[in-house]
Amino acid sequence: MKKRVLALTMAAAMMLTMVGCGSSKKEGYNVGICQFVQHDALDAATKGFMEAMKEDLGDKVTFDEQNASGEPANCATIANQMVANDVDLILGNATPALQAAAAATDSIPIIGTSVTDYATALEIAEWTGVTNKNISGTSDLAPLDQQAAMINELFPEAKDIGILYCSAEPNSLYQANSIREYLVNEYGYNVTDFTFADSNDIASVCTAAVSEVDVLYIPTDNAAAANTSVIDNVCLEAGVPVVAGEAGICQGCGVATLSISYYDIGWAAGKMAVDILVNGKDVSKMEIQTAENVTKQYIASRCEKLGVVIPEGYEALDEA
């Protein structure tokens, strides 16, 4: 009888040990990072993401950081390889990277950052603030009504506004459609879209644009961000000022911007990732987060060259 009791006690102890092991947190996490293209804004978001995770996890988190060099096909290859490597979570930095990750897996948690509108990126018809998929993240959308108001504040006498963006980026189209309504309906501008298919078209499309408009607006567009020197050369020579959707583009070719901090949205994405991996948060029910603060900024040297007068309330930004 004593032997039977002892055996049962040992068995119970083994079961408790097994349950305890099953509920313990992982010793380490492998996180895949797919960044669409290298430019200052996306670089800052990736940095913020990694530093936020490191703050909480230290050496318990490792990163497989990959750059797709602006090619959506590369995003797909990278995402599929990360799934094959069974990473614990994937960061999709920019819309094409997020879309590739979403196509590659419906089970591994995905966090996006530098994505303007998740409903557009993921083709979700009825948007409620959460994806109801294995996806959440942070948005880089600065208030477009405030951007339109800034254009009017700086250029009240202008008549024709051009919007320059890449036709292959759905979130750029979303921004163009949204800001156009404000520019036309609230301020009475004539607005024309000028779209390019890839970096090879930017110079010719930009040249056509500056021959027709008084001011050019560029949303948070990755292709434009990676080719600001081309845009700057065309616009400066033509004397046409550029208002940009984010600070990196503004530094490269703009006179002013109403910008968020990409480091901050990357940081917030990193904290969301920790919540998922460590605290078991359900990614499908996590609301998309937006930047808390926006800042009006200007490039003094470019404003001086183009004769743009900046009112009070703008912060100086260094030219790239």
Give an overview of the whole structure:
- With 320 residues, this protein is an alpha/beta fold.
- Helices cover 47% and strands 20% of the residues.
- It contains 13 helices and 13 strands.
- The chain has helices at residues 2-23, 40-57, 72-84, 95-104, 118-122, 144-154, 170-185, 202-210, 222-225, 228-238, 247-253, 262-279, 300-306; strands at 29-35, 61-67, 89-93, 110-115, 135-139, 160-166, 190-196, 215-218, 242-244, 256-259, 289-290, 295-298, 315-316.
- The strands form 2 sheets. A 7-stranded mixed beta sheet has the order 7-6-8-9-10-12-13, with helices on both faces.
- Helix 13 links the parallel strand 12 (295-298) and strand 13.
- The protein is elongated, with a radius of gyration of 24 Å.
- It starts with a helix and ends with a strand.
- Mean pLDDT is 92; it is low at 1-24.
Q: What is the overall pLDDT average?
A: 92
Question: Spatial order of the strands in the main sheet?
Answer: 7-6-8-9-10-12-13
Distance between the termini: 83 Å
SSE sequence, one letter per element:
HEHEHEHEHEHEHEHEHHEHEHEEHE
Overall 3D geometry?
elongated
Unreliable stretches (pLDDT < 50, length at least 5) are: 1-24
**What integer value in Å does the Rg equal?**
24 Å
Query: What is the overall number of helices?
Result: 13
Strand content: 15-25%
* Structural class category: alpha/beta
Main sheet specs: 7 strands, mixed
Beta strand count: 13
Measured as a percent range, the helix fraction is: 40-55%
